[in-house]
Design goal:
With 856 residues, this protein is an alpha+beta fold. It has five domains: 79 residues, no CATH class; 162 residues, Jelly Rolls; 178 residues, Jelly Rolls, CATH 2.60.120.1190; 227 residues, Transferase(Phosphotransferase) domain 1 (Transferase(Phosphotransferase), domain 1, Orthogonal Bundle); 134 residues, Phosphorylase Kinase, domain 1. Helices cover 23% and strands 23% of the residues. It is built from 16 helices and 29 strands. Strands 1, 2, 3, 4, 5, 6, 7 and 8 form an eight-stranded antiparallel beta sheet that branches. Strands 9, 12, 13, 14, 15, 16, 17 and 18 form an eight-stranded antiparallel beta sheet that branches. The chain has a five-stranded antiparallel beta sheet with strand order 19-20-21-23-22. The longest helix has 31 residues. The chain starts with a helix and ends with a helix. The site of adenosine monophosphate has 19 residues, from strand 19 and strand 21. It comes from Scophthalmus maximus (Turbot). One of its GO terms (biological process) is positive regulation of phosphatidylinositol 3-kinase/protein kinase B signal transduction. GO terms for molecular function: ATP binding; collagen binding; protein tyrosine kinase collagen receptor activity. Its main location: membrane.
Length: 856
């Protein structure tokens, strides 16, 4: 098995080397440099959008893998008003024509506070800013599958690539969805300067009963008998094979790679093509890739006569070139036509038949040193100062052997590293967690090694201390595999146990784990559900905070309810809240004009980060409306201190609430009267399950929005009247429960006892990791929060146990069955939440149903 893998890999390397070495013309496989969204070469003013949700989600924040904390972490359009959302776009002006081979998209992660992304999108492009073309793949599909979570970068090859100056990303979504995007374009500058070609439409050949189509199937201009004002297959960087019936591209029709014509249709014996350029250039040569399968009546041209035009008229004296028509080799080849340094902005060439058929797959122009040694349209800034224009690696003619060699070497090293990891990783490997952690680290590092050669540019280009961009900005994305799903970044390794472990000592300055870039966010998340759905559209309308400002003087302080990360939480009376909201809240204990509310205040000395987090929590909460989610009613953010006003939950948090209760025995449960009497200190099993049902219901709602809570636990649920439970704390950790969090080297604060193995080891937070946390929360509920999960284990041992979950050799320790928990609920439900394979864990929908059934 391993030998087979090695052979395959070796074959892959050889193929890659060949591919790299053979190509020396327009080469989409080499032309894959990030064009500057991440690296900053594209200026803010060149990034625009149809609309924006708020100033902090303006177009300039739509840079992939870039979040300097200024904005809210992505471009987010205003509410999608069109049914398919196609009105909205993020536009990048590349300032000159570029050959774009690859695009990357990412959602709004914003250190864990964002969860909006475009699951699908389309691309429009333009060379002149006025004529726009909808990109479609070789099979005519326009919609590109985008992101499945807010953080992973998803790269998509543009097949065919586009030649454009302006590119628009257009999220495709239901109008009720909020999407946010960060993007990058990959490619190189299009130095040919060719803006369009005009050719007669290709013909159809019948070869032994087989239909062979030689049309220009990706032409992006006007289609008629003659194709005009566009570019297509002749500039897509794909060269035809010797046998025109076959194609480089999988599952395309015979003849796909070529545009071809039958001599019989041309009375004058030649095909006339007109090439238009961006400006007057000094042309040295033209290269035409021709098929020469003369055994089937196809041959390269026998003569090319090219006319030139700098102004309105064609000059009289053409350049004529007669290549030696190869009557021996049937290999397809590039034929170079010298153009004698003629100056022109338009070239008209007549290619004369030498056989029945003439098939071309590519045409390229070289316009002399005047073009390649001067910067055609230099970007305003951002190019490394030590990069000569002629050396700009984003230039299209990337035929430097050194680059090819370096590229190959990096690819080989990456592949070798992978092989080493495969060989090293054996199921019966080292037993101790330290060892397994090392292996995991190595594995992640190796995976990263493959990625870094492709993606390191994103980070390194930003990190130079003098603020200049480094050459690594231009590191290419190597086309090593078909699907470029970025396994993302390994920013920090696992916590180092050897180092002394501090416990969380006060919340000041201690970032919540969601903000800490801990380790690789590997693979795309399991997304069972669609993207964020705006539940209450008018909550979003236009404004940034999306919540109405409540007059502060209408709040009357009653008592302090507690203290959280941001400051104190007060019970207040809100005068006229119902009128303010225009709703009848019909809450017990509230009269018409006075409503009891909880007011969370940001402490006065809060730093900028805390302030941002506070505002972000407002934004998150303002989007949520469910009976089992604590509702944000209004805000006071016009002046300091910032306040959020939420519904008041009389019984505080669920952990404290349950901790003070005792479980009613089954026999006692029958006595309804007793239940009433002792209701304050005792609780029945069915009531506990009722609470779990409500949490599952709230989580079901969140998962329907693809919202990952990341910190589900009883401490983060609040209890109202009649055992009403609502989920709260969207991204906050609390002083009171600091023991539940594990602090990694002063950076990350992690509720490790509630976290899935993949969240701890891979930094991966998904619906399925929320399901894991739900299992622990259910365990807490059924033990009435009398002890912390894994209370007999230290934090280090909990992490060690996580390693066992990862290895899955039966050595992992599960939380025990709570005494009151029926066997079926434990095995079918609780344990299923902690399955190693995230995909095998139940959904909240399923658990909700299961819990309801267990109540019946
Ligand atoms: P937090 O800042 O959300 O961590 O809350 C701090 C404390 O305030 C907790 O101990 C809660 O018991 C209490 N608290 C927060 N929100 C509410 C609410 N809506 N109703 C009642 N008590 C609350």
């Amino acid at each position: 098995m391993k030998v087979m893998e090695l052979k395959l890999l070796t074959r892959g390397v050889v193929f890659f080397l060949l591919a790299a070495a053979v190509r020396a013309q327009v080469n989409p496989e080499m032309c894959r440099y990030p064009l500057g969204m991440t690296g900053g070469q594209i200026q803010d003013e060149d990034i625009s959008a149809s609309s924006r949700w708020s100033e902090s989600t303006a177009a300039r924040f739509g840079r992939l893998d870039f979040d300097n904390g200024d904005g809210d972490g992505a471009w987010c359009p205003d509410i999608m008003s069109e049914p398919d959302g196609l009105k909205e776009y993020l536009q990048v002006d590349l300032r000159s024509l570029h050959f774009v081979t690859l695009v990357g998209t990412q959602g709004r992660h914003a250190d864990g506070m964002g969860n909006e992304f475009a699951q699908r999108y389309m691309i429009k492009y333009s060379r002149d800013g006025s004529k726009w073309v909808d990109w479609s793949d070789r099979k005519g599909r326009q919609v590109i599958e985008g992101n499945r979570n807010a953080y992973d970068v998803v790269l998509k090859d543009l097949e065919p690539p586009i030649i454009a100056r302006f590119v628009r990303f257009m999220p495709v979504t239901d109008h009720s969805m909020i999407v946010c995007m960060r993007v990058e374009l990959y490619g190189c500058e299009w130095l040919d300067g060719l803006t369009s070609y005009s050719i007669p439409d290709g013909h159809q050949m019948i070869y032994r009963g087989l239909d062979v189509y030689f049309n220009d199937s990706v032409y992006d201009g006007a289609l008629a008998e003659r194709l005009t004002k566009g570019l297509g297959q002749l500039t897509d960087g794909t060269w035809g094979l010797d046998d025109f019936l076959h194609s480089h591209i999988y599952s395309m029709w015979p003849g796909y790679d070529y545009v071809g014509w039958n001599n019989k249709s041309f009375t004058k014996g030649y095909v006339e093509m007109i090439f238009e350029f961006d400006r007057v250039r000094n042309f040295t040569s033209m290269k035409v890739h021709c098929n020469n399968l003369f055994s089937r009546g196809v041959r390269m041209f026998r003569q090319a006569s090219c006319y030139f035009r700098s102004g309105p008229d064609w000059e009289a004296d053409p350049v004529t070139f007669r290549p030696t028509v190869d009557r021996v080799s049937q290999i397809a080849r590039f034929v170079t036509v010298p153009l004698g340094d003629r100056t022109a902005s338009g070239i008209k060439c007549r290619f004369h038949f030498s056989d029945l058929w003439m098939l071309f797959s590519e045409v390229a122009f070289q316009s002399g040193s005047a073009v390649y040694n001067t910067s055609l349209t230099p970007r305003k800034h951002g190019h490394p100062t030590n990069t000569l224009p002629g050396e700009d690696p984003t230039h299209k003619l990337d035929d430097s052997n050194t680059r090819i060699l370096i590229g190959c070497l990096v690819a080989i090293i990456a592949i070798l590293l992978t092989i080493i990891v495969i060989i090293l990783w054996r199921p019966g490997g080292p037993k101790s967690f330290d060892a397994s952690r090392r292996i995991l680290d190595d594995e992640l590092t190796a995976r990263l090694a493959i990625q870094t050669q492709a993606f390191s540019s994103h980070h390194s280009s930003l990190s130079t201390e003098d603020g200049s961009t480094s050459n690594s900005t231009y590191e290419r994305i190597f086309p090593l595999c078909a699907d470029y799903q970025e396994p993302s970044r390994l920013i920090r390794k696992l916590p180092e146990f050897a180092q002394s472990m501090e416990h969380l000592g006060g919340s000041d300055g201690a970032p919540h784990y969601a903000e800490a870039d801990i380790i690789s966010l590997q693979e795309s998340s399991d997304s069972r559900s669609p993207s964020i759905t705006a539940v209450n559209m008018n909550l979003f309308a236009g404004t940034d905070s999306s919540m109405k400002e409540f007059p502060r003087d209408k709040l009357t302080f009653k008592e302090k309810l507690g203290e959280g990360q941001f400051g104190e939480v007060h019970l207040c009376e809100a005068e006229g809240m119902q009128d303010f909201l225009g709703e009848d809240l019909s809450l017990e204990g509230n009269n018409e004009s006075l409503l009891l509310v909880a007011v969370k205040t940001l402490r006065e000395d809060a730093n900028k980060n805390a302030r941002n987090d506070f505002l972000k929590e407002i934004r998150i909460m303002s989007r949520l409306r469910d009976p089992n989610i604590v509702r944000l009613l209004a805000v006071c953010v016009d002046t300091d201190p910032l306040c959020m006003i939420t519904e008041y939950m009389e019984n505080g948090d669920l952990n404290q609430f349950l901790c003070d209760l005792r479980l009613k025995e089954a026999t006692e449960e029958d006595k309804a009267e007793q239940e009433e009497k002792e209701g304050e200190s005792m609780v029945s099993y069915s009531k506990l399950i009722g609470m779990a049902v409500q949490i599952a219901s709230g989580m079901k709602y969140l998962s329907s929005l693809n919202f990952v809570h990341r910190d589900l636990a009883t401490r983060n649920c609040l209890v109202g009247k009649n055992y009403t439970i609502k989920i709260a704390d969207f991204g906050m950790s609390r002083n009171l429960y600091r023991g539940d969090y594990y602090r990694i080297q002063g950076r990350a604060v992690l509720p490790i006892r509630w976290m899935s193995w993949e969240s701890i080891l891979l930094g991966k937070f998904t619906m399925a990791s929320d399901v894991w946390a739900f299992g622990v929360t259910l365990w807490e509920i059924l033990t009435l929060c009398k002890e912390q999960p894994y209370s007999q284990l230290s934090d280090e041992q909990v992490i060690e146990n996580t390693g066992e979950f990862f290895r899955d050799q039966g050595k992992q320790v599960y939380l025990p069955k709570p005494p009151c928990c029926p066997e079926r609920v434990y095995t079918d439900l609780m344990l299923s939440c902690w399955r190693r394979n995230a995909k095998q864990r139940p959904s909240f929908q399923e658990m909700h149903t299961q819990l309801m059934e267990s109540l019946a």
